[in-house]
Amino acid sequence: MLRRVGLLTAAELKAITRGLEKIAAEIGAGTFPWKAALEDVHMNIEAELTRRVPAGAKLHTARSRNDQVALDLSDVAAR
Questions:
Q1: What residues contact 13, with CB distance under 8 A and at least 6 apart?
Q2: pLDDT at residue 7 in the model
Q3: Could you report the per-residue pLDDT of 21-32, keeping only the tens digit for each?
């Protein structure tokens, strides 16, 4: 959606997608660097993504925390 409305470039979208795929693989392998100081799963993933891919900071654009959780839950339910 952020790409469609022009808030992300094609390169940013690709970098974010790749970054999230790598993080998902690390979580699956048990090697993701979870930080207890961060509030929850979402904060851990967002912070690590933004560290790796600066455009990751744009993921909150036009989305509340509840929107993000609902999207994550719908993705899990679809699998």
A1: 2, 3
A2: 87
A3: 999 999 999 999
User: For residue 14, with 0-12 CB atoms within 10 Å meaning exposed, 13-18 middle and 19 or more buried, which class applies?
Assistant: middle
Residues of the chain with pLDDT under 70: 62-79
d(Cα 19, Cα 26) in Å, to the nearest integer?
11
Q: What are phi and psi of 33, to 5 degrees?
A: -80, 75
- With b meaning 16 or more CB within 10 Å and e meaning fewer, what string describes 29-45? eeebeeeeeeeeeeebb
Quote the DSSP letter at residue 72: H
- In this prediction the pTM is 0.75
CA 41/CA 19 separation, integer angstroms: 16
